[in-house]
Amino acid sequence: MPVDDLAPTDFHELTEALKYCVLIHDARTFDILWANRAACDVLGWTVDELKPLKAPDMSKNARQYSRELGHRWLGHAVEHGISATEWCYRSKNGEEILTEAIAIRVELAARTAVMVQFRDIAEEKAVRRDLSRTENRLHAFLGGLAEGIVVLDDANRVVFASEAASRELGGDLDGADFTAYCCDGLVPEREGRYRFAAPGGTPRWYAATCQRIDIESDLRGRMLLFYDITDRVRAEERHRRDTQHLDHLARYNAMGDMAMAIAHEVSQPLAAAYNFVEGARGRIGTGTGTGTGTGTGDEAVAWGLDNAVRQIERARRILGSLRGYVGRLEQSEQLTDLNTIVRDCAYFVELRAQEHAVAVEFDLAADPLPVLCENVLIGQVVMNLAFNAVDEMARWPQAERRVRIDTRRGDDGRPELAVRDQGHGPPTDERIFEGVFTSKENGSGIGLALSHRIVTRHGGTIGVHANEPRGAVFWFALPTAPTRAEAGST
Questions:
Q1: Yes or no: is domain 236-324 CATH 3.30.70?
Q2: Which residues partner with 415 through β-bridges?
Q3: Cα separation, 133 vs 343, whole angstroms
Q4: pLDDT digits (tens, 9 = 90+) for 135-151
């Protein structure tokens, strides 16, 4: 039906049916001319009762709802066509009604009027206050949390980051690619421990949990909640190392007990073997054996027996030194020359090198290097370092298999020995002398630990550094000792 077909009474009925409250004011005096049914119901007055009322009669008794301010608001609508404000009306029974009010200038046929439309917003304001209070609380809670929260989209970009997350990782995380903050390369997708850091920052350990969220199409993605556990991880690592060290000490002590038992049990068979070999040598020399007793064959047998005697004698000396070492070190120390110890070991080092076709070069100091030590134990350190270098070079092409052993007096005056190879270089593990490191397939890591123990008990120092242009240098230095002549003069 066309609008022109509506009767004036129809417009009246439509206006009366509105749920929005309407008041009509005179644009000059601001007196009330008319009110619709919704306004009368809310305010509790009839139209005739409203007409003589003024602002103080139907507004809250507060300065912001004074008559002057009310006229200024309506006057602004008259001048500019429209004006909005928040106005608190007071009903006939004294109830205060907070409203959102809009004043609009309307040019009627008889006069200019101001139509005020208003609606009750008390509940809406209460909801807003509750939401604001809840938001402030959440803001305070999230700001005070030690845990960081980030929400990532499917491309691992940050669509939300809490203050704690920004504090932990630094900078503005919004829109950032979170992959750049994951030090281990993968963005967490399950609960676990991860290392995070801002690009270029120092990584720290975090415990993280993950879950998918979808908040009314407003915030959707993978939420990560994480908190710093670096101190805990470091403490666990220290505990693990301490446990390994205690295990090593337990093995080391057990080895001491076993060494004493082995030294006791093996010394007698070695002595008997030595006697048998000496007897066999004597028989070859006198021709009383079952063979011919002459010729090249006897010389070869004699050569073999001589070397067997040297090996047995070496074993006997090691066992004797072992008993002294496990007991009291001071009782078995003696004044000797470090060069002499190296020369005694050269035979056994060269035997090991020949097995792997490794060339060994000895460069010993021209002057004596007097040390006060248990020479067999220090000799064992020399052979441990030399054997390790030979085994390392055995992995390389034969033309490159070279090991150098040299002695000298260091800058601090202490006698030093260095074993240089041209292999892969010094190990990166800082605990190579703690009995937990080995690069050999069937190694135990005890050799370097035992060498460290022997050298430090002698008051010396042992270490490793890179060789130039390639390889590693294992070295040790012992306290210098006076020569026999100097000792005698004192």
A1: no
A2: 409
A3: 87
A4: 777 666 666 566 888 89
Largest CA distance in the chain: 158
111 vs 106: CA distance, rounded Å: 9
Residue keyed to tokens 């960081």: 148
In the chain, the amino acid numbered 457 is R
When pLDDT is cut at 50, 70 and 90, the band that residue 289 belongs to is very low
- The predicted structure's pLDDT at residue 328: 47
Cα(121)–Cα(44) distance, rounded to whole angstroms? 18
C-alpha dist (Å) from residue 137 to 78, 162, 438, 457: 43, 14, 57, 64
**In CATH, which superfamily holds the domain spanning 3-120?**
PAS domain (3.30.450.20)
C-alpha distance across the termini of the chain, in Å: 135
Sheet holding 415-420, edge to edge: 359-363, 402-409, 415-420, 472-477, 461-466
Residues 6 or more apart in contact with residue 87 via CB below 8 angstroms: 59, 65, 70, 73, 99, 101, 118
Which bin fits 428, alpha (ψ -120 to 50), beta or left (φ > 0)?
Answer: alpha
| pTM, rounded to two decimals | 0.40
d(CA 445, CA 388): 11
Say how far apart CA 95 and CA 323 lie, in whole Å. 105
Q: Which CATH number fits domain 127-228: 1.20.1260.10, 3.40.630.30, 3.40.50.2000, 3.30.450.20?
A: 3.30.450.20
Mean pLDDT of 421-432: 81
Of 380, 437, 388, nearest to 245 (Cα)?
437
Q: What token pair was written down for 320?
A: 């004797």
Q: Assess contact for 192 and 121: CB atoms under 8 A.
A: no
3-state secondary structure at position 404? strand
| Range name among 203-207, 300-304, 415-419 with the lowest pLDDT average | 300-304
Q: Please write down the HEC assignment for all residues of 24-66.
A: EEECCCCCEEEECHHHHHHHCCCHHHHCCCCHHHHECCCHHHC
**Least reliable range by pLDDT among 371-375, 391-395, 426-430:** 426-430
Is pLDDT of 394 > 80?
Answer: yes
Looking at the domain 330-489, which fold is it?
A: Heat Shock Protein 90 (3.30.565)
Local confidence band at 465 (pLDDT 50, 70, 90 cut-offs): very high
Give the pLDDT mean for 170-199: 88
- Neighbouring residues of 93: CB distance < 8 A, sequence distance ≥ 6: 44
